[in-house]
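Input structure tokens:
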């Protein structure tokens, strides 16, 4: 739909709204009533499937429980669902009027008490923010309904003979890449946000248009909407990359002495899409843009959290959006955040991320998402989303070669459900070892209780046995290596006791170089290298595959296998270690696991990660969902590419060798 047509439609929609269908009257302002301290109320709205074909072919990945809570499948564990609770939940059959009357209309009366209010629509592009805020000709949204009611209320309250004269003005602005742009006067450029001595936030130079009727509002609003900065992303052609902020001010002047004045502000905000940049095809400018958008949304999340937890510091000043809302979000203001979510599985990760952003409470429930027949489908969205999240090459790498084979139809005419049940386990080979261990112990437990197995693990017995055997073998191998290391250490200690001269060459904090460990003659090198404990164990098991010693020759490096029988003179200053790719991959995997599963405290246990960075990482993860690769750290605001590299260098070996351990 082109801009003109859509504007025309909206005009018609607003006219329909003005004509009165579904209108509700607002209660009159109670004189002198003091509202209880306000926090940010949070509602979630699930839109229906917009594509009939998709609705027929896939079940929703979100399900309402009651008028305040909903549940989604837990992609980390298919045996659990995530239950979220909010101030209100509007299911896919809820109407525009339900949302408006339930969450927005009740706060409007506070404007006439001289208090501020804000309504924010949050969620990924395509989840229904604009539908909720603006709506369509047939289904007008929050903005036209609120404007209509507010104008009606001010007309009544400000009528001749009443104590107060009322006037309403509107401003319309957008925040794009942390710039404040006046949509009623696009030529005015980036505007500054100021705070007056009474703590009121104002924008000098922002256009304010007086409105007395809904027609006045339309006359200013519709052309200004066309000035919005919108860009086409892969997710949605009409996706907005900016925060659109409609400000409606209600000013009151007392007609008789003492001629008091008061002002109430209402912000109606259609936020930019909260989707993960990696899924929208945003690159270059778009990516930079998304970064700025996500900064505001990230800070908004922190502000809402701080307000609702009663924290002493609310970080309003950290983004333009929150700075603007400083006097209208929290404090004595009445605020509602409507998180919009979509039922399609391709939205799964964005849905979880939006829910985490908005959740007042989250509970993990130990039960499959849906009943037996739906569960098979419920698992599918997660698989798809993960593929979408990773690039095609990464997705293939993560899947491993086996999966391609396994995706082919079952040659034995197994029932469709059985082959579908098999797929999650087929992924176990590429799964995090800690997760694998957990699943297998669950399976063992269920087996010991005589259960036929959970849906997830009800795979052919043979395959389970093979996997369990592999894990057991690994355990045994680790035990064996530990014993061997103890023996070697005892030998070295004995040697040291015999030859005190050699002891002088050692620094007590440094471990022996590898050749000494694996060889039978333990003579020290001049310069020892600090090695992770586990690394030494690994090396003892496979000396030539995991670690090599490199000799520096100018700029070139020549790898030579580590060999205990090497003449000692070769080991001298300038030797370096080269670690096998497998070991590095293991380290990376552990780091990734820690990034995705670790608490801020766990993350602080890593090298180069302090309190602030740990919180940034956890915050990023809450906002965007799991990291798909360790390099994604760079995307975290406040962590540069260089810092990410040095973080990797500092941690990869230690983690690969299992010296440090997070939540695993
Ligand atoms: P966003 O602003 O979050 O990008 P939109 O409001 O543009 O999303 O919604 C995307 C599509 O979904 C639009 O075609 C819209 O009409 C439709 N839609 C959104 N919410 C609903 C709803 N509650 N009922 C019916 N259709 C909806
Ligand atoms: Mg929109």
């Amino acid at each position: 739909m082109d801009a003109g047509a859509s504007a025309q439609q909206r005009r018609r929609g607003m006219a329909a709204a003005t004509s009165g269908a579904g209108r509700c009257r607002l209660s009159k302002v109670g004189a002198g009533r003091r509202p209880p301290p306000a926090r940010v109320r949070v509602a979630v709205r699930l839109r229906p499937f917009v594509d009939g074909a998709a609705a027929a072919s896939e079940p929703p990945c979100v399900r309402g429980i009651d008028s305040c809570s909903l549940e989604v499948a837990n992609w980390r564990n298919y045996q659990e669902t995530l239950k979220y609770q909010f101030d209100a939940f509007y299911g896919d059959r809820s109407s525009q009027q339900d949302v408006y009357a339930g969450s927005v209309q009740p706060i409007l009366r506070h404007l006439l008490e001289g208090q501020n209010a804000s309504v924010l629509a949050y969620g990924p592009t395509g989840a229904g923010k604009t539908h909720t805020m603006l709506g369509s000709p047939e289904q007008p949204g929050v903005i036209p309904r609120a404007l209509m009611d507010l104008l009606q209320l001010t007309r009544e309250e400000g009528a001749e003979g009443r104590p107060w004269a009322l006037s309403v003005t509107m401003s319309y602005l957008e925040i794009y890449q942390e710039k404040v742009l006046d949509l009623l006067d696009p030529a005015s450029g980036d505007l500054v946000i100021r705070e007056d001595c009474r703590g009121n936030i104002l924008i000098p130079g922002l256009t304010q248009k007086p409105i007395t009727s809904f027609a006045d509002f339309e006359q200013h609003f519709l052309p200004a909407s066309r000035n919005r900065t919108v860009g086409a992303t892969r997710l949605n052609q009409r996706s907005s990359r900016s925060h659109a902020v409609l400000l409606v001010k209600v000013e009151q002047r007392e007609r008789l002495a003492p001629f008091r004045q008061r002002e109430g502000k209402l912000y109606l905000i259609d936020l930019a899409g909260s989707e993960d940049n990696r899924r929208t095809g945003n690159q270059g400018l778009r990516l930079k843009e998304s970064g700025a958008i996500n900064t505001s949304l990230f800070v908004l999340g922190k502000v809402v959290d701080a307000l609702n937890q009663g924290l002493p510091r609310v970080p309003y000043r950290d983004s333009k959006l929150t700075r603007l809302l400083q006097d209208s979000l929290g404090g004595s203001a009445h605020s509602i955040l409507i998180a919009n979510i979509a039922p399609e599985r391709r939205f799964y990760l964005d849905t979880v991320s939006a829910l985490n952003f908005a959740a007042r409470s989250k509970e993990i429930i130990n039960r499959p998402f849906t009943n037996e027949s739906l569960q098979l489908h419920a698992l599918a969205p997660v698989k798809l989303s993960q593929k979408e999240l990773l690039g095609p090459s990464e997705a293939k790498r993560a899947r491993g070669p086996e999966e391609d084979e396994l995706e082919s139809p079952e040659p034995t005419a197994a029932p469709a459900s059985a082959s579908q049940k098999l797929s999650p386990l087929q992924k176990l080979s590429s799964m995090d070892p800690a997760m694998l261990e957990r699943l297998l112990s669950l399976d063992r437990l269920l087996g010991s209780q005589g259960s036929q197995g959970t849906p997830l693990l009800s795979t052919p017995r043979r395959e389970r046995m093979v996997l369990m055997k592999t894990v057991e073998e690994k355990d045994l191998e680790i035990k064996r290596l530990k014993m061997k290391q103890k023996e070697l250490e005892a030998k070295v200690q004995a040697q040291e006791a015999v030859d005190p001269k050699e002891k002088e060459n050692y620094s007590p904090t440094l471990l022996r170089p590898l050749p000494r460990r694996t060889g039978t003659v333990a003579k020290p090198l001049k310069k020892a290298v600090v090695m992770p404990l586990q690394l030494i164990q690994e090396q003892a098991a496979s000396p030539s595959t995991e670690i090599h010693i490199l000799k520096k020759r100018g700029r070139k490096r020549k790898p030579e296998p580590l060999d205990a029988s090497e003449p000692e003179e070769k080991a001298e200053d300038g030797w370096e270690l080269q670690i096998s790719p497998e070991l590095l991959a293991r380290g990376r995997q552990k780091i990734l696991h820690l990034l995705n599963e670790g608490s801020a405290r766990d993350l602080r246990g890593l090298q180069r990660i302090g309190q602030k960075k740990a919180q940034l990482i956890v915050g990023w993860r809450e906002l965007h969902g799991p990291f798909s690769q360790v390099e994604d750290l760079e995307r975290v605001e406040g962590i540069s590419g260089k810092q990410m590299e040095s973080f990797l260098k500092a941690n990869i070996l230690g983690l690969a060798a299992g010296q440090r351990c997070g939540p695993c």
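The chain has a mean pLDDT of 70. The CA atoms of residues 433 and 664 lie 9 Å apart.
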